[in-house]
């Protein structure tokens, strides 16, 4: 009896429009690799006048597939985005608005205090349905709830005699305390529990899942969620250090 062999499904190979490497996902709203996307985001807010073409003719990208000329690489990304903007202005404008910053001073601007979520905002009224960003409002409120749960839990497991002062509770001061394996386990459990409540309070689809499916979803996403939140907190406490985004 012959064994039936399933047909092989061919996948269309896509390549980065900037450097030509094979890709399985897109960035910046176009077919671009992650490396080109990161390069563009880091270069955009800077003064591009310091970029110089290595060959001097502005054609490095067309002759060198390794794209080792920063000037030509950045120029090509801008050209590709401009062409895509002419074809699909709404989609690319959404990407550009999220990337563009004030270039009048040609340098990175530290994040404003207003850009971060007030950890006590859970006690405020829920925004009305007329808000322009109702889903983001729910995320901010859910994250505020998660922070309150974590604060209460972490205070409960702190060793006797190491109670935080008022400045730490209000987020004005930042003090690093020595930790041990037990403290790491305790805070990890508190974070997982708080993230569980964050999902229930914020996402209707998550709230509708069974308890078993919620645990599976939380287990799979907790590491990535923790990395994103750690970067967010680092940017909050160290607003003038743009290297905090390099450790994701």
From TrEMBL:
Key word Zinc present: yes
Domain of life, per lineage: Eukaryota
One MF term in the entry's GO annotations: DNA-binding transcription factor activity
Keyword line: DNA-binding, Metal-binding, Nucleus, Receptor, Transcription, Transcription regulation, Zinc, Zinc-finger
Pfam family, one: zf-C4
Entry GO terms, CC: nucleus
Residue ranges constituting the Nuclear receptor domain according to the UniProt record: 13-91
Gene3D superfamilies: Erythroid Transcription Factor GATA-1, subunit A
Protein name stated in the entry: Nuclear receptor domain-containing protein
Source organism of the structure: Pristionchus fissidentatus
């Amino acid at each position: 009896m012959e064994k039936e062999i399933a047909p092989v499904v061919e996948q269309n190979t896509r390549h980065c429009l900037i450097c030509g490497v094979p890709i399985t996902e897109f960035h910046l709203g176009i077919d671009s690799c992650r490396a080109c996307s990161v390069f563009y985001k880091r270069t955009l807010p800077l003064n591009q006048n310091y970029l110089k073409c290595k060959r001097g003719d502005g054609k490095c990208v067309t002759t060198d597939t390794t794209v080792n000329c920063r000037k030509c690489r950045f120029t090509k990304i801008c050209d590709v985005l401009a062409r895509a903007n002419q074809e699909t202005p709404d989609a690319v404008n959404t990407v550009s608005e999220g990337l563009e910053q004030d270039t009048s001073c040609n340098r990175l601007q530290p994040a404003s205090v207003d850009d971060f979520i007030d950890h006590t905002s859970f006690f405020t009224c829920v925004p009305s349905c007329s808000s322009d960003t109702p889903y983001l409002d729910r995320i901010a409120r859910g994250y505020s709830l998660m922070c309150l749960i974590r604060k209460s839990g972490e205070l409960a497991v702190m060793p006797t005699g190491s109670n935080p002062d008022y400045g730490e509770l209000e987020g004005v001061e930042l003090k690093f305390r020595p930790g041990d394996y037990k403290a790491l386990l305790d805070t990890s459990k508190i974070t997982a529990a708080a993230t569980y409540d964050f999902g229930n309070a914020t996402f209707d689809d998550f709230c509708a899942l069974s308890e078993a499916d919620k645990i599976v979803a939380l287990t799979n996403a907790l590491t990535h969620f923790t990395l994103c939140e750690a970067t967010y907190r680092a940017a909050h406490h160290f607003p003038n250090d743009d290297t905090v985004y390099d450790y994701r």
